[in-house]
Amino acid sequence: MGWVGISIFVLIASTFRKLMKDNEYAFLHVLMTFMYAMWLPLPLTFYRLLNTDLLLVGTIFGLIYLVMIVIAMALQAGHISYIVKHNDHQISEMHGDYMMAVISNPMEGLANIFKCIWAWFLGVSFWKNDEMMMAAIMFLFSLFFFYYLLIVLEQSVVKQMKGITNVKPNQTFVNLETFVFFLALVGYITIKP
Asked: Which of 20, 71, 115, 129 is buried most deeply by CB count within 10 Å?
C-alpha cells in the first residue's frame, strides 16, 4: 500500500498544473486524502519490523499524524468543493480564507510536528538495530520539528514573537519533505531482507 501512496504523489505532481488550471483543488485534496490513507499502516509496520519497545510511543505519534492529515485533507476537500460549487457571492473570500485557516494551518502544522517526533523514535529504533543509514535519515527528518514548531507558533500566538513572523509554510518544501520521508520508509520496507 505504501507504493500506492507514492504513486498517487507522483500522479499529483505530474498533473498538478492541469488540476490547478481546471480549478480542481478539491479533487487534488481527495487524492491527497487517499495518498495519506495508503500510508496509515506504516507506523504499525515499522513497530513490528524494528521490534523495539521504545518505538511504541513513536508509533502512536505516527498514527496520530496520519489520521490528522487524512482528516484535514478530507475537510479541505469538502470545504473547497462547497466554495467552488456555491460561489454565488453568498460566501465571502474572507470567510473562505477563515475556514481554510481553521482546517488547514494549525492542524497540518501540529500533525507535522507529530511526524517529526515519530521520525525521531524511528531514528532511535534504527540506531538500536544497527541500521545507521536509516537512523541518520530519520534523525535528519526529526530536525524539521523546529521548522514546524515555528510555523505553528507563528499561526497560533496573538502577539507576534520576534523572528517568528518571517517563518511561513512553503507548500513545495513541505510536500517534497513528506515525499522523501515516505519514499525512504517505503523503500526500506521494499529492500529489507
From this structure: 115
Nearest to 24 by CA among 103, 104, 84: 84
Whether 2 and 38 have beta carbons less than 8 Å apart is answered as: yes
Between the alpha carbon of residue 28 and those of residues 24, 70, 72, the distances in Å are: 6, 13, 13
Q: Give the domain extent around 107.
A: 2-191
Structure pTM?
Answer: 0.90
pLDDT tens, 133-161?
999 999 999 999 999 998 888 877 777 77
- Residues 26, 81: contact at Cβ < 8 Å? yes
Helices (H), 40-170: 42-50, 55-85, 93-103, 105-128, 132-142, 144-156
Q: Which long-range contacts (C-beta less than 8 Å, at least 24 apart) are formed by 91-97?
A: none
What would the grid cell of residue 140 be?
535528519
CB 127 within 8 A of CB 143: no
Distance CA 41, CA 171 (A): 25
Grid cell, residue 10, equals 507522483
Decide if 26 contacts 77 (C-beta within 8 A).
yes
